[in-house]
Amino acid sequence: MATDTIPSGNYVVLTCTVHGIRTIDITTTRQWSMGENDELLCYNGRINNVRKYEENIMQGNKFSLTIFNVTESDLNEVYQCRYGFDAASKLIVADEPKLSLSLRLVTNFILFGGYIILTCAVNGISTVDKDVTRQWSMGNHDELLSYNCRINNRRKYEETVLPGMSSVLKY
């Protein structure tokens, strides 16, 4: 069984290739289903939800199912195509978000005795999950300054998790 990753919100086309024949015979049973309960999506061109699915018989030995507006409920499921007594399946999973960090110095000028404010933004997510480990450290030996808003020296450092996708360290 092969696995494909799909971003939600898009559409996906699943193609079933029937080996051993030259062209699809429309009188032979074709079927598309999904999930552990083998929920029927399409049977011989009859779609159970025409806004969600579309079947196409392609040239040669292939037929396809298009799934429109992919949502979370469409993902992490096994889809199966059947032609006669033969069947094939594919697991479709959600794309993992591509995460990256960016560090920005907020203060334009650094004055002795003043503050330095650093912002760490997590790109690729809509909001920082407070249950995921956050850590600020510095220097060649990675001296720990803050771990999940637990500050090692409260007189010198302050961490704030902003709404959205940023964490700020002030020192």
Automatic annotation (TrEMBL):
Residues 1-100 form the Ig-like domain. Gene3D superfamilies: Immunoglobulins (2.60.40.10). It comes from the Eukaryota. This is Ig-like domain-containing protein. It comes from Mytilus edulis. The lineage of its organism: Eukaryota, Metazoa, Spiralia, Lophotrochozoa, Mollusca.
